[in-house]
C-alpha cells in the first residue's frame, strides 16, 4: 500500500513538472506573434546587435533549455514531439546561416548584426545544435542503448582464465546466474564443469548488464533447436557464443549471428582426421611435416567448429561436409550450396591455444580480457 501511494505521488509530481512546458510554450508563441506584429519585422526576428536580441536568439535559448529538460529522464511523447520541432528549427536556422556565410548568399543585414556580429552569438547556434543532437540521442534509454550497441557490438571477444576463479565459492555466483542454471550445474558431479557453467552465464550476464546497461529483467537467455543459446528481449540485437578449452573460457558478443571456438594445442590424431575432416584438409595434413601437423589440425578444428556454431548446428552437422581453406591471414569456407558471406578470424589469446571466431564482419575482432566486477 505504501509503495502504491509513493508511486502515485511520483506520477503526480512528474505531471506537475511537465506543466512547466505550458507557460514556456505560451511565452514562445506570444514572442512569435509579437515578432510578426512588430513594425520592424527584421529587427524583431533577427535582433540588432549584441544587446537587442531577436526571436531567433530567444529560440536558441529555448532549445537548449528543452534539450536539458528532455534528457533529465525518459521523456514522454509530448516532450519528444516538442523537442523534435526545435531540432528541426535549429537545423534549418543554422544550415541557412552557415550556407549564407560560406557561399555569400544574399541575406538580410540584420542576420549578421543579430548572429554573426560577435563570436558568442555564433557559438549559441553551434551549442544549440550540439546539445539538441545529444538530446535526440538520449531522449530514451532504448536509443542510447542502440548507439552503445552499434559502437560496442560489432565483434568483441572476451576471455578469462578459469583457474583464477577456482577459489570463488558458489555463493559468489548466485547473483550472476539464473536459478535454472544453478540447478543444472548442481546435476554435474565434476566441480570443474559446474564452475564452467557458472562462469559462462555469469560472464554473459555481466557483459550485458555492465557493458551494455541492459537490466536483468529486460532479457532472457534461451536455447535454439540444436542447443545454441540466444538472447531475446533486449532493445537491440545481441548475439553471443561461448567456448572453453584448457584454462580458458572465451565469449564473443556481436549484433549479428556469431560463433567461436577455442582449442588447446595437443597431440595430432590422424584417426579423427580421416573420420571427420574434408578430403582436401586430409591431404594438406598428410603433406605437412610432423611438427606442423598438430598446429594445423587444431587450426582446422577450431575454425570448423566456429563455423558450425555460427550456423547453430554444432557437431550435429558433418565436419567433413565443408572445407576450410587457409590463404595467408584469410580463412575461406568451401561448402556446396552455402551462399551467405561469413568471415573466420583468428583470435590471438595464448600461443598454446588456437581460437577462431566466425561472423558476418570482415574486420578483426576486438579482444579483451574479462574480469568480474566486484
General description of the model:
It is a single chain. With 374 residues, the protein is of the alpha+beta class. Helices cover 51% and strands 17% of the residues. It is built from 13 helices and 13 strands. The chain has helices spanning 2-18, 21-37, 41-46, 55-70, 77-103, 109-116, 119-137, 141-152, 179-186, 191-211, 270-276, 279-287, 290-311, and strands at 47-48, 52-53, 156-161, 220-223, 229-232, 239-245, 248-254, 259-264, 323-327, 330-334, 343-346, 353-359, 366-369. Strands 6-7-3-13 form a 4-stranded mixed sheet, covered by helices on one side. The protein has a 3-stranded antiparallel sheet with strand order 8-12-11, covered by helices on one side. Strand 4 and strand 5 (229-232) form a beta hairpin. Helix 2 runs antiparallel to helix 4 (55-70) and helix 4 crosses helix 5. The two termini are 35 Å apart. Residues 1-13 and 113-119 have low confidence and may be disordered.
Amino acid at each position: 500500500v505504501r509503495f502504491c501511494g509513493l508511486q502515485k505521488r511520483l506520477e503526480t509530481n512528474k505531471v506537475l513538472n511537465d506543466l512547466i512546458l505550458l507557460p514556456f510554450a505560451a511565452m514562445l508563441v506570444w514572442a512569435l506573434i509579437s515578432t510578426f506584429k512588430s513594425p520592424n519585422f527584421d529587427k524583431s526576428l533577427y535582433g540588432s546587435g549584441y544587446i537587442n536580441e531577436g526571436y531567433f536568439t530567444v529560440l536558441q535559448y529555448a532549445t537548449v533549455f528543452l534539450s536539458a529538460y528532455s534528457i533529465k529522464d525518459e521523456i514522454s511523447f509530448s516532450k519528444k514531439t516538442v523537442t523534435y520541432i526545435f531540432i528541426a528549427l535549429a537545423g534549418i536556422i543554422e544550415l541557412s546561416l552557415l550556407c549564407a556565410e560560406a557561399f555569400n548568399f544574399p541575406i538580410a543585414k540584420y542576420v549578421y548584426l543579430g548572429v554573426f556580429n560577435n563570436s558568442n552569438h555564433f557559438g549559441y547556434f553551434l551549442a544549440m545544435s550540439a546539445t539538441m543532437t545529444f538530446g535526440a540521442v538520449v531522449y530514451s534509454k532504448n536509443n542510447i542503448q542502440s548507439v552503445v550497441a552499434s559502437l560496442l557490438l560489432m565483434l568483441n571477444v572476451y576471455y578469462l582464465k578459469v583457474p583464477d576463479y577456482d577459489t570463488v565459492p558458489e555463493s559468489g555466483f548466485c547473483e550472476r546466474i539464473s536459478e535454472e542454471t544453478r540447478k543444472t550445474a548442481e546435476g554435474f558431479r565434476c566441480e570443474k564443469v559446474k564452475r564452467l557453467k557458472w562462469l559462462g552465464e555469469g560472464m554473459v550476464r555481466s557483459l550485458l548488464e555492465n557493458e551494455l546497461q541492459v537490466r536483468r529483467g529486460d532479457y532472457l537467455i534461451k536455447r535454439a533447436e540444436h542447443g545454441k543459446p540466444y538472447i531475446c528481449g533486449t532493445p537491440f540485437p545481441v548475439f553471443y557464443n561461448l567456448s572453453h578449452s584448457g584454462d580458458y573460457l572465451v565469449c564473443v558478443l556481436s549484433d549479428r549471428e556469431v560463433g567461436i571456438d577455442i582449442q588447446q594445442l595437443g597431440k595430432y590424431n590422424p584417426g579423427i582426421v580421416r573420420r571427420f575432416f574434408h578430403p582436401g584438409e586430409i591431404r594438406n595434413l598428410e603433406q605437412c611435416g610432423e611438427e606442423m601437423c598438430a598446429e594445423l589440425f587444431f587450426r582446422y578444428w577450431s575454425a570448423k567448429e566456429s563455423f558450425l556454431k555460427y550456423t547453430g548446428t554444432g557437431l550435429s552437422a558433418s565436419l567433413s561436409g565443408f572445407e576450410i581453406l587457409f590463404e595467408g591471414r584469410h580463412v575461406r569456407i568451401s561448402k556446396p550450396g552455402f551462399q551467405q558471406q561469413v568471415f573466420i578470424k583468428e583470435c590471438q589469446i595464448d600461443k598454446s591455444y588456437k581460437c577462431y571466431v566466425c561472423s558476418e564482419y570482415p574486420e578483426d575482432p576486438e579482444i579483451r580480457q574479462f574480469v568480474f566486477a566486484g
